[in-house]
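The instructor's notes for this session suggest beginning with a concrete chain rather than abstract definitions. Hand out the sequence below and ask the class to guess, before any prediction is shown, which regions might be ordered.
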Amino acid sequence: MVGDQNRRRKTMFILLLVALGLVFSGSTFFESALNPRERPIWFILFWIVCGWLTLTALLLAIFDLLIVKVEARKAERIFREESSRCQTLGSPESKTDE
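After discussion, reveal the predicted structure:
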């Protein structure tokens, strides 16, 4: 999962969808079951799970951002090396005058 960008982004999307679904269902369908005065343990556990899912998606997003930056720097370095190589081959100083 860490190496594949597409899989990472799909995982982030799914994690956020699940967290949003939990928040929505917690404030509508499960409102009575998650009443903090009646069931404080369930309430705390529910919000820990929501927070954990969101934090995991956030950390994956930061990791993805760092990987994209590293790949962009690598591509830029390769481009500069190739362009400088092409310039030195085509420069008039590299040709011998007869």
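Then share the key points. The chain has two helices and no strands. Residues 9 and 57 are 9 Å apart (CA to CA).
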